[in-house]
Design brief:
The protein has about 190 residues and is α/β, with parallel strands linked by helices. The protein has 7 helices and 6 strands.
């Protein structure tokens, strides 16, 4: 069993480093190209289950890649609260040593709250007989990966993840592992 993770294609906010939580920002033309390239790479591969975040940038990536996913609210991006749309330097004007991993988001979610969502998703994934394809978001997928590896959720800070990339979680014997990470697609 493998879990293939797709971070949605590029948006204007991801391109410019703005934290994009629950604001529904559309894909750029580059993001649409990335989504179609993901589809080309995955064409012909069988999945027992295809899932997506409810946010349009993830859903549109899935559909442009040629998939009709089931939606799971737990796959939504980190709720950045008052920090949604801001860049890290803008937030650090008020909290000089701020990172999302340490402080969470004012009026939004903590990393521990993301861990609860990630753990629910992992429990669902582990019940599937076959490979699973997941379309979601950078920070959430990083937390999901940390929890897949049975690490603390904040360890997701160590897994850089670019827009429009593929990653694969799986097993080595009984141990949950990363099979591939942050693989760019071309097309």
């Amino acid at each position: 069993m493998e879990v293939v993770l797709v971070r949605h294609g590029q948006t204007e906010w991801s391109r410019t480093g703005r934290h994009t939580g629950r604001t529904d920002v559309p894909l750029t033309e580059e993001g649409k190209r990335q989504a179609r390239a993901v589809g080309a790479v995955l064409r012909g591969r069988e999945f027992a289950l295809v899932l997506s975040s409810p946010l349009l940038r993830a859903l549109d990536t899935a559909k442009l890649a040629g998939f009709e996913p089931e939606v799971r609210d737990d796959l939504a991006e980190w709720d950045y609260g008052e920090y949604d749309g801001l860049t890290t330097p803008e937030i650090r004007k008020h909290v000089p040593d701020w990172t999302i991993w340490r402080y969470g988001a004012l009026g939004g979610e903590t990393v521990e709250q993301l861990a609860v969502r990630a753990d629910r998703m992992i429990a669902e994934l582990l019940r599937v007989d076959g490979d699973v394809l997941v379309f979601s978001h950078g920070h959430f997928l990083r937390v999901l990966t940390a929890r897949w590896l049975e690490l603390g959720a904040a360890e997701g800070r160590l897994f850089a993840l670019d827009s429009g990339t593929l990653s694969t979680l799986g097993f080595e014997r009984d141990q949950r592992v990363i099979r591939s990470w942050n693989v760019p697609v071309s097309g």
